[in-house]
């Protein structure tokens, strides 16, 4: 028997998501729940994989299985696919394992032809029939064949203009017939052959087009953003058409079972009578709030509410549904767990659903996307500046948050401005998937068209980017737009409040948000999850440390001491130190730096009090501190009693071919032990002083970077221990401290047992470890990563998301060897990955004690760590 | 009971070398063989390690054990240590596990004082007593206390000059007494206190000085050169003094049991009557050939010959001995396996000893240092040029081989010239250990003083550097020297034939040596060792390949295709290819390169015939091919129809921050598949053509560099396979080929199982693998390595000698994973380490199939591989 590649809805259920795709699994589930779903079948994700791996051919076997299911649809309806008298029309939709909204292509009304249209006209009216037909021609031509839809749209606009029609509603049956002819001609002109009339051929090609759309650029971008593996593939849903555009007793709608913006427990949605679902989503006509359906069709409304409630309780979460009413009869075309819910709404929904007995706290913790919390932590407008700001417009508050930036009108310009370091507000008539790259880098998005479920709104909420939609007051000029009497040119500042929908002129200062309410409650549950890793922060200043504490950090996992030397009053001293010709000169310069460094550490200790503080010794190659401007060389030379050329020559001598793998990290301490001595002195003296003054139990953790050898580690450890012992003895107070190492060189992982003999803790520096393990410099990876992602070799940037296969293997080796030697060894991570949820999951599984990340990522890390603990997986 | 740190000679034997040091173990062995050895004891290497690890203090326990042994010496001789009437005098000598000639310090006549000297004068004559005393004062002051011996030597010279003495032989007892007083004054002036008279204090301090001398710079340099770990430490031999300087019935000598230069079976040595051993070695007086001893003391001569024969048979190798005759009685002070034997002599000795039944072939293979073979392979003078050359002098042929270079007179100048890329001949009055760094970089060494066993001769033979010694005709000027009527200035060229002792004016061309005779016989045994790894070569041209074949290579393990593009007629095309703006332009440029590349490969195939040829696809970052000069940019721009600035800008855009980890290796093939296609075409087409023309069974091995991911490997593999299949099909001949990968990125090792699924062979690129594993760029490592070696963190450069702990661990992981997936996977190595003996040993243990190295290293690798096979060790 051949492998089963096609399932009728009634053969599936929600648990078969990997095989049937999310949409298909839910259609199957609903079918079996008795929800009114138009009948249909699913071509599986395995069929997609089979298609991709067998030379992009839809096998005869799969075609045969499809034909069998079509026969079942025909039997159920009495209609015939491709028939001239009673044609069966179907929709063809993609449905991947993970929802990919707006990313995949859809074909409606498939099965129509001249003959079928004529039959349809008899049963449902000519206007409807030819409207459906022209829609199909355009969609099929665009999506399946690749004829640009522009020429179709253009000719329709021209036609209406010539006729003096204001909108599609003025179009008569004859008009649609004429359009069908025009569209067929466009197709013929473009393709050199007639529009295909064979329904089966249409169907196979549409299915292939869905499979191919898995390979399109938008899909790649979306997958990259959402970490969806290419291998998953997509399923295809083929479903009997129901028509929302069969006149005023029909309609279509999209709805969320909870308020998307606030999370409030109220149905939230839009519908249009006499329209197909696409019309609602596209925002072509302004839709009606779902509540208004009650007056138009109370029975359908009541049924819809009941179904929504059943589905919520069934799936234990807010649902995102599509419905169609065909001649007063309600059909549900789709349900899925609501996505792209901002964290404010998400937390509210969770709180409510826990109270309503729909979900548990644990389910809530598992449900919230850690990355989404980011949005709660970002600034809001400064009240004072907000009051003084000029309000220039108001529209739909589509994605909450405050944003200010310079206006750009295309995705490309926005991306370019972002590369120049500008904050950007993208202003568009409406957005499309082609704008994704520009949307991704924008502080905020403003559109003139489209509603709360428009592309811009959905995508912006997904990104947590403030967004205002449907601002129809906007009048676009050549390189500017006008609103509220103000003309805003490209590059001018505006500010958006995505929570209120208000648009302001100028660049309004933003301030940090209050953290409390649902967030605080939720995070208290998160922190109570047993077996959760600790979460520390990377902080280089008392200010960062305070911010991180507010966000729930339990300590500092990384203080980079070098950042402290870039201040204007310190950098000249640092440079003098670096350029010193003798140890004596270097010591003199270090003596000048000591008070600054000590003050920094004291400030951090005062904020962190009894919490652990890990301080890393100087790490970067010294040439990073060198001036680039002539005047800086001149003043430095004067200060040092040398000529500018001498100073330049010395700076030049620090140049390295591969600085990433050069004279940096603990190698500096080996060459210049006096630097490590000064830093040890600053760390220990500051700790002693703050301990004496405030009584905190300070226990500094001194971290040696870039170790790769046990003797090297011991060498630096000896410097620290000797100096610290002197200082502690002199101060006459008891002060404990730990000495540990970064693990960021592959060799360190391989000899971690030896290093664990001279280190009390490890902290994985997975930024460098990833670069060295891949032999790939992040600074030079741009072109390479692009080509690798384009060629489907990498799914994304391994410095953003931990490579669990390669780098992870090294981490496992290091942990096994390290703990084998020293079972009490404390192990953490302080690279970028420490704040990235999937990487945090890995860290939990390998048994790390803590992760450390930037302050704004601390809540994300806390949640990800809790989710990992709940998942309960550990490597042995 | 305390640990035993001191052994009497009779308590030890030759097997205790690690504990007693080489010299001590042999003294113990000889004592127990009944050879006449002055009695003594050994302070062990463990005592040295104990001293170094316990704050550099000689423990009371060790002192007590030493005292006990001194008491035994006293009991045996009836003398008393530190006694005024019958003083026991001892020598204190270092003796490390591995012999370190000239590196460690020695103190003679220890135990002497004013009173002891007086007693000694009574029993052995005043002149002898005070000569011994002054020797002791100077040695002790210099070696133990650190008072420069220069002031002692200077005052002795002054004294002799004042007296009008030509040499030390004119000195009377009173003169020596006066000198003793002068020396004591020098000591007092320098140290602010009197010369120490307590014998025990002298002894402890002398032992400490030997331990400390393990830490001196010369010892570090020697250990670095000879891969001796710091941890081994040195033992100290304390031995009753016997005196060769007790008048004309006494004498000292050093000898080798075989001819050091030719290997001939004849005693080879020198002696001086009325002299201590140091006088012979230092070459202060010209010594007599050992044969002349027969007439002076036939009994001692006969005894010496007998002992030499016994020792050779006992140790199964030629011996390097020191002897002293005191009042006609022969003492053997030392024996050890002869070191610093050039390979010509070494092979002769082995051949003879096998014939004499002293050693087996297998023992011979184990005995020869693979690195020494290097010397056999180096050029000799071109006959024609040699005939025309002007001979300007002749002296001792101290180390064989031909060398030509510019003359420098100090080690520092020689080293500086070497850094400038000059070939250097170091010309010195005599050399000392301080000259080591200069000697190391010289092509040849010429000295005016000293014999065949002088420092210069011994060291030069060890290095395989041609050396001519004892050329007393040389007259030094201010910055030149005169010989044979010619004045040679600093920077002038001379040529040395170290095999004949002849010095030539000018720069004589050298030619490759004939390989045959003993070498060929020996290498045939080497290749017959069962279980030996294959040895291939790295060769980029037919010429290299032919040379490597001559040296016994079994195939090519690495052809670097990039080197082929640097020729003047190719580089412009390469540059055009790189700077092309479009794929079409790039393909056009590649089409121009194809014929060159194809011709190169065809030439190599023709040389290698049926042997395997591994060709690596383009590897380096493209900017390495860019011009640096303005005129090159200009001509390139003209050729490409662009402005020079455009070309410069494009070249600039190739700049990378860390090119080592940038856009190179297979990453180039991902970005520009057309490059890999062109190279595949050249490889396959050339193979097809040569196969057709010559009938060789050519099976190219195409190697993908820098892989770190399985999909990336598959991507490039697909390009190669597709193109190769096309070409093979079109040619209509059967051609097999392999596709494999370099393993040079840490991640490749960690996912080697996956990669083995798409590769038929692996070749470790341990150059890059070492750099990435250490996170250390070889280009930038100069300063770092210096500091690490100076601080005793690294023993040497890990890119020269494979790091078995870290990099080796990654290799083990890769082999285990790779063979686990594909048991037939062929695995080799093609980095620098492939020609380094200790690394080759590791490669054998981990189960590699072959090593590949540069042509001149092939014989070294063959021998090292055979030795590894004989050692028979394998990791599981």
Account of the protein in words:
The structure is a homodimer of 876-residue chains. Chain A is 46% helix and 16% strand. The first copy, chain A, has 34 helices and 31 strands. In chain A, β18 and β19 (480-483) form a beta hairpin. The model of chain A has no long low-confidence stretch (mean pLDDT 91). At the A-B interface, α25, α27, α28, α30 and α31 of A face α25, α27, α28, α30 and α31 of B.
What secondary-structure arrangement, pairings included, does this model have?
2 copies of one chain form a homodimer.
Chain A: E1 6-8, H1 17-33, E2 40-43, H2 45-53, H3 60-77, E3 90-96, E4 106-110, H4 114-124, H5 126-145, H6 149-163, H7 173-191, H8 199-213, H9 217-226, E5 234-240, E6 251-256, E7 268-273, H10 277-282, E8 288-289, H11 293-296, H12 298-315, E9 319-326, E10 329-337, H13 343-355, H14 361-367, E11 380-381, H15 383-388, E12 391-394, E13 396-399, E14 402-408, H16 411-419, E15 424-428, H17 436-440, E16 444-447, H18 455-463, E17 467-469, E18 475-476, E19 480-483, E20 486-489, E21 493-497, E22 502-505, E23 510-511, H19 517-527, E24 534-538, H20 542-550, E25 556-560, H21 571-579, H22 583-608, E26 613-616, H23 630-640, H24 644-653, H25 666-671, H26 673-694, E27 701-704, H27 710-731, E28 738-743, H28 746-750, H29 752-756, E29 761-764, H30 766-774, H31 781-790, H32 807-821, E30 826-829, H33 837-845, E31 850-853, H34 858-871
Parallel strand pairs in A: 14-15, 15-16, 16-17, 24-25, 24-31, 25-26, 26-27, 27-28, 28-29, 29-30, 30-31
Antiparallel strand pairs in A: 1-2, 2-5, 3-4, 3-5, 6-7, 6-9, 7-8, 9-10, 11-23, 12-22, 13-17, 14-21, 18-19, 19-20, 21-22
């Amino acid at each position: 028997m051949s492998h089963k590649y096609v399932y009728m809805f009634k053969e599936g259920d929600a648990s078969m998501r990997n095989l049937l795709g999310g949409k298909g699994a839910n259609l199957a589930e609903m079918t079996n729940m008795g929800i009114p779903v138009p009948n249909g079948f699913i071509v599986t994700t395995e069929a997609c994989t089979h298609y991709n791996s067998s030379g992009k051919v839809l096998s005869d076997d799969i075609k045969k299985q499809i034909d069998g299911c079509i026969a079942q649809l025909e039997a159920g309806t009495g209609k015939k696919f491709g028939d001239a008298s009673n044609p069966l029309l179907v929709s063809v939709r993609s449905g991947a394992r993970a929802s990919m909204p707006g990313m995949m292509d859809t074909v409606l009304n498939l099965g129509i032809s001249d003959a079928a249209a004529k039959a349809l006209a008899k049963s449902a009216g000519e206007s409807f029939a030819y409207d459906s037909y022209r829609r199909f021609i355009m969609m099929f031509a665009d999506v399946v064949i690749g004829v640009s839809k522009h020429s179709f749209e253009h000719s329709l606009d021209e036609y209406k203009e010539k006729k003096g029609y204001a909108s599609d509603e003025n179009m008569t049956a004859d008009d649609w017939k004429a359009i069908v002819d025009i569209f067929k001609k466009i197709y013929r002109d473009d393709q050199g052959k007639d529009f295909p009339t064979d329904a089966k051929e249409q169907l196979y090609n549409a299915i292939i087009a869905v499979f191919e759309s898995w390979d399109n650029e938008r899909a790649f971008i979306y997958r990259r953003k959402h970490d969806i593996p290419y291998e998953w593939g997509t399923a295809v849903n083929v479903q009997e058409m129901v028509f929302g555009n069969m006149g005023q007793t029909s309609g279509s709608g999209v709805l969320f079972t909870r308020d998307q913006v606030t999370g409030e427990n109220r149905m939230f949605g839009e519908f249009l009578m006499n329209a197909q679902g696409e019309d609602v989503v596209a925002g072509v006509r302004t839709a009606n709030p779902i509540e208004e359906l009650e007056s138009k069709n109370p029975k359908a409304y009541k049924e819809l509410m009941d179904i929504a409630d059943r589905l919520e309780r069934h799936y234990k979460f807010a649902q995102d549904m599509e419905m169609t009413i065909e001649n007063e009869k309600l059909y549900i075309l789709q349900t899925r767990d609501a996505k792209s819910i901002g964290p404010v709404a998400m937390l509210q929904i969770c709180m409510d659903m826990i109270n309503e007995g729909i979900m548990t706290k644990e389910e809530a913790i598992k449900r919230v996307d850690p990355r989404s919390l980011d949005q709660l932590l970002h600034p809001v407008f400064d009240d004072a500046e907000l009051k003084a700001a000029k309000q220039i417009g108001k529209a739909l508050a589509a994605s909450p948050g405050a944003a200010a930036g310079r206006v750009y009108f295309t995705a490309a310009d926005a991306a370019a401005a972002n590369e120049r370091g500008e904050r950007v507000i993208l202003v568009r008539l409406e957005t499309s998937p082609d704008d994704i790259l520009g949307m991704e880098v924008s502080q905020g998005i403003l559109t003139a068209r489209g509603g709360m479920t428009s592309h811009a709104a959905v995508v912006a909420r997904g990104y947590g980017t403030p967004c205002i939609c449907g601002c129809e007051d906007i009048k676009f000029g050549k390189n500017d737009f006008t609103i509220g009497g103000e003309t805003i040119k490209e590059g001018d500042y505006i500010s958006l409040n995505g929570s209120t929908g208000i648009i302001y002129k100028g660049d309004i200062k933003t301030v940090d948000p209050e953290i409390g309410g649902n967030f605080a409650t939720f995070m208290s549950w998160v922190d109570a999850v047993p077996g959760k890793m600790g979460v520390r922060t990377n902080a280089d200043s008392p200010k960062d440390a305070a911010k991180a504490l507010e966000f729930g950090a339990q300590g500092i996992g990384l203080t980079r001491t070098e950042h402290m030397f870039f201040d204007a009053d310190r950098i000249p001293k640092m440079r003098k130190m670096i350029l010193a010709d003798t140890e004596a000169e270097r010591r003199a310069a270090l003596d000048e730096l000591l008070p600054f460094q000590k003050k920094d550490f004291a400030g951090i200790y005062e904020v962190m009090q009894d919490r652990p503080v890990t301080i890393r010794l100087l790490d970067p190659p010294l040439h990073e501190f060198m001036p680039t401007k002539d005047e800086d060389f001149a003043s430095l030379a004067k200060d040092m009693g040398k000529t500018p050329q001498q100073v330049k020559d010395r700076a030049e001598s620090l140049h390295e071919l591969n600085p990433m793998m050069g004279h940096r990290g603990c190698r500096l301490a080996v060459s210049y032990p006096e630097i490590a001595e000064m830093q040890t002195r600053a760390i220990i003296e500051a700790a002693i002083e703050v301990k004496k003054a405030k009584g905190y139990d300070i226990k500094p953790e001194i971290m040696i970077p870039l170790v790769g050898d046990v003797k090297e580690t011991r060498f630096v450890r000896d410097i620290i221990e000797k100096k610290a012992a002197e200082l502690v003895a002199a101060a006459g107070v008891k002060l404990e401290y730990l000495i540990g190492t970064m693990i960021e060189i592959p060799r360190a992982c391989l000899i971690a047992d030896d290093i664990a003999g001279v280190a009390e803790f490890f902290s994985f520096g997975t930024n460098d470890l990833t670069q060295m393990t891949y032999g790939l410099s992040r600074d030079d990876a741009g072109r390479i990563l692009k080509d690798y992602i384009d060629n489907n070799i990498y799914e994304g940037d391994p410095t953003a998301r931990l490579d669990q296969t390669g780098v992870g293997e090294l981490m496992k080796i290091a942990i096994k060897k390290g703990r084998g030697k020293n079972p009490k060894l404390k192990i953490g991570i302080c690279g970028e990955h420490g704040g990235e949820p999937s990487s945090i999951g890995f860290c939990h599984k390998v048994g790390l004690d803590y992760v450390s990340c930037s302050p704004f990522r601390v809540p994300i890390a806390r949640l990800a760590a809790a989710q990992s603990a709940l998942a309960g997986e550990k490597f042995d």
